[in-house]
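Morning!

This is the sequence you dropped in the shared folder:
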Amino acid sequence: MTVYGIPNCNTVKKALDWLKENQITYEFHDFKKKGITAEKLNEWSARFGWETVLNRKGLTWKKLSKEEQAAIQTQEAAVNYLINNTSAIKRPIIEKNDQAILIGFDDDNYAKTLA
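The structure's back. Tokens below.
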């Protein structure tokens, strides 16, 4: 299992703590250090919808001008933006057997999906 995220993100910390408490082993992929591919972003967009993968609640998105935000209206535009602005990817994203299964953190969803 792979957890994609940023180590100093509070939501990622909650998810990692949950995994540790439930003794679930994982590999961590740090977006900041390792980056992310367009292929991976497109896979996640196909699974969750690009609107979900793009974190519009975060500071990275909010720093954009209204014009810049308005220009991101398609999956292609979102993927191009996220490759260069990995902090705007909703996180964490968890993959099991190379398939994305969870995005974000919700105690109940984790329990149902992983326990």
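Headline: The chain is about 50% helix and 15% strand.

More detail when I'm at my desk.
O.
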